[in-house]
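SECTION: protein entry
WANTED: fold as tokens:
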Amino acid sequence: MVGRTTHLGISPCSSGISLLYYEPVSEPSHSVAAILLTGGASRRMGQDKSQLIIEGSTLAIRASSLLQRVVTTAIEVGPGVSGLPSTREQPPGGGPLVAIAAGCRALRESGHTGSALVIACDLPLLREELLRYLVEWVAPGSVLPVVRGRPQPLCAKWGRHDLDNASHLVSRGVRSLKHLSTQLDVTLLHTSNWGHVASEATFSDVDSPADLQRLGLST
């Protein structure tokens, strides 16, 4: 492909295997899709977080715009507020794993069989550079940034197997996302990996008005 460069890279993963590659590509990816989660309850915020206006755009619209710059296929799981094709989890408000399972089903029905970015819409400082970095990191399974020792499953690239497994976990009553970071083929990206494309603040979500104030944001 013209204009494409490939760099070998080493990344820590839970299995101890480091045979991974980072492949910068300038155009939106066809092989990686995206699931945007907009259906949170927003109880602590007191209003729908997806509709918070930051710098002239709602969080949902801002996130969908960023995603469409890095992938060709993106879907919203929520009430349809992002401009993306949307679906709803069942039951609505069932939590992020239930929503991810719904997003995976919608992607599979659309013909996408690979991995996908999974992004919560309440990340007001999310950057295109980070999303592109996750898309371009080639790994056999999911790719999770780690911030101060905490994996970030709602700002990550979920591998094909982990996406497909979401429905199975939900059917067993699982709701936590902590399982993802323990999978054998997961890649954990630490600050030394992503630090040149993002800061810790990039991963900050906003659950309350105090969070907005902490980040220096106004609506």
